[in-house]
Amino acid sequence: MTDPDNVVSVRDLRKTYGAVTGLDGVTFDIRRGETFALLGPNGAGKSTTIEILEGYRDRTSGEASVLGVDPQHGGIDWKARLGIVLQSTGESGNVTVLEQLTHFAGYYRNPRPVGEVMEAVGLTGKAKTRIGNLSGGQRRRVDVALGIIGRPELLFLDEPTTGFDPQARRQFWGLIDGLKADGTSILLTTHYLDEAAHLADRAAVINGGLIVDIGRVGELGGADARIPVVRWRERGALREERTTEPAALVARLHAEHGGEPDGLEVIRPSLEDIYLDLVGAERIGSDPLDAASPDTDTTSPEATRA
């Protein structure tokens, strides 16, 4: 639990709510400088895990270390080393970007210069604009600016691009890539698998309070999950076969049928296919925090702590 190369270490993390089990033995590490994605359906255990790591919710049992500190006992100095970007902050729209960032910078001993932060998130031209007059994408950039102004060693990003259009998402990814290049460690939750594939070094898939797979995003599910499927119709019946040599099978089918069989197709499993196989349907819905809403839990500390 004290490996200096890990900013987060979790062992057999458990959380129960009465008779309901939210987390059922979660174990993973996040390395220094790494972007780590926590993936899973609503109700899988993401929110509970994150709130425990942020120090806003106590665990039932297990071990957790964040920046070398048990988050259950983290003090003000420890919290100042974290950056947290929630799904929705509820910040006042009546102040300007400059006023808001200047105010928050005052909470930290060694904040980033406000001008530098505005430039980093692409808001220099909006410094004197009231936050309430910004677009959704620009307000999300304010959220990130507030999360990084204290020079965090670890940044929590909770569904950072929900509601973004494709162009805004791509711009936001560039911002996060820049933070990563600066050495910031990042814990990301997202429902967008392409986002996880672009931003994350590694990912864990959580379902029913359990980690069902962990590794590089392109390796989730293992090699067998990526074996292509050849599908065709024969005598009116749908047939399919998984094979590591789809071209050879297609050639054999051509020879056997005297041409291309009806409905012939070669299907290579996508990341979404593999993810859906991993999470299934039978385990969804164990976590009261995640299950409350597909967007955010307005009754949890996560919705109010900003």
Automatic annotation (TrEMBL):
Topology class, membrane: Peripheral membrane protein
Keywords assigned: Antibiotic resistance, ATP-binding, Nucleotide-binding, Transport
Main location: membrane
A single GO molecular function term of this UniProt record: ATP binding
Subcellular location: Cell membrane
Pfam family, one: ABC_tran
Gene3D superfamilies recorded: P-loop containing nucleotide triphosphate hydrolases
Domain ABC transporter: 8-233
Similarity field: Belongs to the ABC transporter superfamily.
Identification of the protein by name: ABC transporter ATP-binding protein
Species in which this protein is naturally found: Leifsonella bigeumensis
